[in-house]
Each structure stands twice: as C-alpha cells, then as structure tokens.
Design goal:
With about 290 residues, the protein is of the alpha/beta class. The protein is built from ten helices and eleven strands. The chain has two domains: about 20-115, Leucine Dehydrogenase, chain A, domain 1 (Rossmann fold), CATH 3.40.50.10860; about 140-260, 3-Layer(aba) Sandwich (Rossmann fold), CATH 3.40.50.720. The strands form three sheets. A six-stranded parallel sheet has the order 1-11-8-7-5-6. A three-stranded parallel sheet has the order 3-2-4, sandwiched between helices. It has a two-stranded antiparallel ribbon with strand order 9-10. Helix 2 (about 45-60) packs across helix 10 (about 260-280) and helix 6 crosses helix 7 (about 170-180). NADPH dihydro-nicotinamide-adenine-dinucleotide phosphate binds near residues 140, 169 and 228.
C-alpha cells in the first residue's frame, strides 16, 4: 500500500513559511500585495478567487480584488493591467482564467509585467524556466515538485513520466523535473504504447483531464504517482486522472484527489507573491536571481 501524500499538510507548511517571511518584511515596513482580476461570473472561478483571497489573508499578503463584468472590453482589461504594472504597491497580478471568448487570453497574459506574473505563465518566465533560471514558476507543477521532494523522494536520476503537455501543467512540470535531474518522458494524445511509457516511470505526473485515466496495471511497482487531474463526475464527486484505488496498491507514494495537488497550487501562488515582492525590492534571493530580471 502506498504512502498517501497529504497535500493539505504540505501546503500549510509552505503557507506558514511564507507567513514567517511576510512577518520579516513587515518589520521593514513592507507588505506584499496581490491583485486578483476576475472577469464574469463563472462559479468555479469565483470559488478559486475566494480561496486565493483567503490564503492571502492567512499569510498576511494584501489582496486587491477586481471583479469585472463579462462584457468588459479587452482594452479596458489591458488598461487595468497597465495601471497595476505601474503601481509600485502591487507586487503580483493574477488574471483568473478562463476569460470570456471576446478577450484574447494570450494578449492579456503578455500584458502582465513578468516581474508581477505570479502565475508564471508569461513567455518570459517560461523562457527562464527552460534555461533553468526561473523564479516565478507555474504554481501547479511547482507544487507537484514540492510534494515529491517534501515526501523525501529524490528526483535525481529517476525516470519521470509526465502525462499531458499543456502549457500550464505538463510542459512546465517536465522542465522542472529536468531541472531536478530527472530523466523525463512527456506523453500526450498522440503517444504510441502509452501504457508502456507510463510503466517506465519511477515518478508519474498525471495531467490529462480524464477521470481515472491511469489504471493500476499502467504503473510500475513502487512508482511515485502525482495526480493533477480535477474531474467532476456525474454524481458531483471530484476524481483525479489516476485510478486511486488500483494505483494505491502498487505505488510507493500517491496523492489523493481532493487533498493532493489542489491545495498546493494556492500555496505556491503565495510563495510566488512573496518572491515577486522581494524581486521588486531588489533582494538577492541567495542566487542573484534578482539581477536576471
Ligand atoms: P489540458 O486539457 O490543457 O491538457 C491535457 C493534456 O492531456 C494534453 O496535453 C493532451 O494531449 C493530453 N491527453 C488528453 N487525452 C489523452 C489521452 N487519451 N492520452 C494521452 N494524453 C492525453 O489540461 P490541463 O493540463 O490544463 O489540466 C489537466 C488536468 O489537471 C485537468 O483535470 C485539470 O482540471 C487539472 N488541473 C488541476 C490544477 C490543480 O490546481 N490541481 C491546475 C490545473 C489543471 P494533446 O496535447 O495531444 O491534446
């Protein structure tokens, strides 16, 4: 039976670490600030935004909230982002996706100052990630890496299989695993013999968006299985991309859904807000990263 990785516990650890750093900044008269922009009334997005604000409150980060009507023009949204880019009191900008169809998401993400891009989606930050110098990393994949490392698993030299190649999860997860010296295979909808590929994984990250896609016979004995999937079943229950009950019997470590990767995304967002604030203040971050940007 696998050890079940407790994402709630690890995410709380990270939020507490951020909280401590925020307290140290407060002694210097600095309070990090995150602007959260929500366009329209998508109920799932409203829940995500509410949870992000709650996390800000918990760690002591100030949150500015912009709830805009769904028919707002692209230009008005871009103007707001421009104002926030120039506002030195705002350290992070998050635009909750998806956006209404009349707004070009790519244009909006490009408009955010990379130093304030706490989601880590701006091509500049993706570029830094690909050359191994990222400081603002996409929150969900960065959360997966924390779950693996804080469970005591060494990624170095391991065969890592990422199932899914989206820009927000699969691709950055593959780059982060490579940076940790994993040997990485990325699978997608055109991958041949996907079962065999996944079975080669000492570490498997599933980001497919298909309920129970990864079955017990697709993983190797002792694999570390990280399930990013969030799928809503007809009965209203949440389920991951991994068949938990089958895989739990073979894996050495496994994340549940809910309570695995989900809570990590917001914890890593808080960490990114803190980092963004420090970068803007010109802190060295130990590795001179402030100078890279
Ligand atoms: P996308 O739909 O953007 O990407 C899905 C990926 O899975 C694609 O690369 C696709 O391949 C691949 N795929 C789809 N079907 C198959 C198949 N039959 N065999 C192999 N590969 C397949 O999803 P996201 O990356 O945005 O999200 C993935 C999951 O993670 C979703 O359930 C989402 O809800 C969840 N999620 C959870 C988060 C969290 O905080 N825990 C945050 C973000 C996402 P191809 O590229 O060839 O089409």
């Amino acid at each position: 039976m696998a050890y079940i990785i407790d994402g709630k516990k690890i995410s709380l650890e990270i939020k507490n670490e951020v909280k401590n750093e925020v307290l140290k900044l407060a002694e210097k008269g600095v309070k990090p600030c995150l602007a959260v922009i929500l366009v329209g009334e998508n109920p799932a997005s409203q829940v995500y935004v509410r949870n992000k604000k709650k996390a800000c409150e918990y760690v002591g980060i100030k949150s500015l909230s912009y709830e805009l009507p769904s028919d707002i023009s692209e230009n008005k949204l871009l103007e707001l982002i421009d104002d926030l880019n120039k506002n030195s009191e705002c350290n992070g900008i998050l635009v909750q996706l998806p956006l209404p169809k009349h707004i070009d998401e790519e244009k909006v993400l490009l408009a955010i100052d990379p130093k304030k891009d706490v989601d880590g989606f701006h091509p500049y930050n993706v570029g830094l990630l690909s050359v191994g110098k990222a400081f603002l990393k996409a929150c969900t994949p960065a959360g997966c890496i924390e779950l693996i490392k804080r469970s005591g698993v060494d990624i170095s030299g391991k065969n890592c299989v990422v199932v899914g190649r989206s820009n927000i999860v699969g691709k950055p997860a593959a780059m982060l695993l490579t940076a940790e010296n994993g040997t990485v295979t990325v699978c997608h909808s055109k991958t041949k013999n996907i079962d065999e590929e996944i079975r080669r994984g000492d570490i498997v990250i599933a980001a497919v968006g298909k309920p129970n896609f990864i079955k017990g016979d697709m993983i190797s004995d002792g694999a570390v299985v990280i399930d990013v999937g969030i799928n809503r079943l007809e009965n209203g229950k949440l389920c991951g991309d991994v068949d938990f009950y089958e895989c739990e019997k073979k894996a050495s470590f496994i994340t549940p859904v809910p309570g695995g990767v989900g809570p990590m995304t917001i914890a890593m967002l808080m960490k990114n807000c803190l980092l963004a604030c420090e970068i803007q203040l010109g802190f060295e971050l130990g590795k001179n990263r402030a100078k890279d940007i």
